Amino acid sequence: MKEKEIKFLEESFKKYYFDHFDLIHVPERTSEREFGYQKFNSGMTRHISLKDDKELHLLLMQNIPSDVYCSNAYYSFPNLSMKEKDWKEADLIFDIDSKDLHLGCRKNHCVTKCNECNQVTHLSDFCQNCKSSKLETKSLPCNNCIDASKNEVKKLKNILMEDLGVEENNIHVYFSGNEGFHVYVYNSQFQEIGSRERSELVDYIMFKGAIPETFGMKKMKPNRSSFPNFEDKGWKGRFSKEVFGSKSKRSKIISELITNGYSNFQKNLETLSFKIGTQIDPNVTMDIHRIFRLPGSLNSKSGLAKVFCKDLKTFDPYTESSFLNENSIEITAHCPIEFKLRKKKFGPYNGERITVPTYAAAYMICKNLATID
Amino acid sequence: MITLGKDEIAKYPFLADAGQYLKDKGFTLQQFGTDPDLKLSVEKALDRVQVSADGKIYKSDLIDGEASKDYVLEREVFSFLLAIVLLKLTGMNTLIKRFSLAEARRAEKYLEKDLANITDESKKELAIRIIDDLFSIQIKKLDDYFIIPISNYLTHSINFHEREWKLINRHVENGYVFLTPHETVRLIRKELGNYINSKIINAKTPSMIPGFEDQVAKLVNLSKKFVTHSVTTGEYPPCIKHAIDVLEKGENLPHSGRFMLATFLLSRNQSVEQIAPLFKNAPDYNEKVTLYQLNHLKGTSGSGTQYSCPSCEKLKTQNLCFAIPECNNIFNPLQFGKKERK
């Protein structure tokens, strides 16, 4: 990113932070958290400790960060080095990203930008201008991506409440500010568990590592009565609904499963993991020292804010998380895909000079698809 | 400290304060070396250690966890306490480890029985309390199951490598894992073994007691059987180190782990004869079977197929992967360390 674009984004971000202090708060137990931030075209500054909202707002005004982060962990000394922090516990966190869902729509709203000649084209393996293979992929997620991510959040919430015994009011869902959702679990029995234990929870949620015996299939002489039922709780019930479809088909399908044998059953379980398992980023949940994007802060990949989703069903990220101002700005846009922000359509643009509101310009500049001349 | 009844001390002797117990009974250690009647307990103690060294569980004189006569009960506790004295005098860690594991498995049987006891509520309560006090697992009874909080379960189950212990393969509901009495006590076997082990390690070593020399000499001799000739030259990846470690501790390494270890070492040009002794400490070791299996893997017997070491990905699914940063970007344990040599 060049200086002009950085200056524009910094000014826009600063204005947002100044105008919207009401949206950006330090989390509870502030003094036990580690904060960090990044500036445009710069590395990460972390191991910061803050006392209250005032100190946070000061940090935002003084540094105008591109991204702000806060630990899900609680420490005795959050500002000391990792070794000396004295880890106490950590909220359970989940990252659901539409790019991990392998959706068919992705090819329609992804563009590639050549790192050699800056040519922007629809998704491709090499640059159609200079034939270079050094390409960067940029995605402008569509409604289908958002709906699919919402569905994963729904699946996750269901497992958290039904299986893991988490109360609904302790589950907070946020739009990440780009392509997915962040889910936090507070005050649960899992606060103090370590990384290896969290990795087991990940496998459980993603339906990974299941063995045929768990679902009634034995290597030798499988018994029809040990297969799960529709009424079963947890994965057995979900398995039944997915595999048997309806109660009337259960008996016939069990016969087929037995005929197909043990190793085929194992393969089926692996395939099922993508269907019924929740697609979360395992690394995020397993990491007990992560600094995670701060709610209310802007995401430099889009210029949109990470916002709390009160009602996930009706939540529209492209209206409810766009907070940058409406001032017009002239840019050169290389954005061959149409996108919608605040119910207004933009693009496609093929290298033309256009005048658009700041929030739309920032969206394209953050994705490296527009420049200021 | 849990207050134990007479029968309970015999079932769970590791919970007793050894010194206090002998004192209460009016005996000193020296008397066991000289008094012919008491010496029987020393012989019993020796037997108890010897049986554990063979990977077996000492057969108790208790019937259904209860002593028919008071002296049977006393001898039962004495033999445990004296076994510890003998082990301390012998000073061989390998015997202590084996003894701890065997005693843990012995206690496991009683715990399981007590947990499943439907006629005597107090027995069940005590078992639940032992598990809570020693291992901080809060167990509740629900219908035919024992339920424990998932977080509690995970801190113990992550030490198991068998996939059946993965949370995904458990009945999980509303924040709890459902277990049978057998599974409940199985969950703490390792910790129970560690608990007994640490109690023995932390016990004071007495000076030699006259009359104990023969038993100690027998145990020193016995421990020689377990010295393995190490073939661990060069840097092994963490998965292999872990497998060797498990076997050295005399713990059970699952089939997939043995397969990984054997195929890895065969690929590193170790001979069948060099590898076989590594499995010597396995609870179910049988020399003939081990040699047969190793030759099979090498391709010198059977179909002639030479089996190769499983990929890292496969080991991950089998929970045999213990990756460290140095593993970076390798696909197979055999690649470990190769990059660094460039």
List keywords for this structure.
heterodimer, A: 373 residues, alpha+beta, DNA primase, PRIM domain, 2 domains, four-stranded antiparallel sheet, 11 helices, 22% strand
Describe this structure as you would to a colleague.
- Chain A is α+β, with helices and mostly antiparallel strands and 373 residues long.
- Chain A has helices at residues 3-19, 53-63, 106-109, 143-163, 195-206, 234-244, 250-260, 262-276, 282-286, 317-320, 358-366, and strands at residues 35-38, 44-48, 67-71, 73-75, 87-90, 92-97, 110-114, 120-122, 135-139, 171-175, 180-185, 291-293, 307-308, 328-335, 339-341, 344-346, 349-357, 370-371.
- Chain A has a 4-stranded antiparallel sheet, with no helix packed on it. A 4-stranded antiparallel sheet of chain A has the order 6-11-10-13. A 3-stranded antiparallel sheet of chain A has the order 8-7-9.
- Chain B is mainly alpha-helical and 342 residues long.
- Among the domains of chain B are: 6-108 and 200-222, no CATH class; 238-341, no CATH class.
- In chain B, 54% of the residues lie in helices and 4% in strands.
- Chain B has 16 helices and 4 strands.
- Chain B has helices at residues 6-11, 18-25, 29-34, 36-53, 70-90, 93-115, 121-135, 150-157, 181-187, 189-202, 213-223, 238-248, 255-267, 272-275, 287-298, 312-317, and strands spanning 140-142, 145-149, 171-173, 176-179.
- The relative contact order of chain B is 0.10.
- Classes of the chains: A alpha+beta (373), B mainly alpha (342).
- Chain A binds chain B through residues 162-166, 189-190, 192-193, 196-197, 200-201, 203-204, 207-211, 213-214, 233-236, and chain B through 149-151, 154-155, 157-158, 163-164, 166-176, 317, 319.
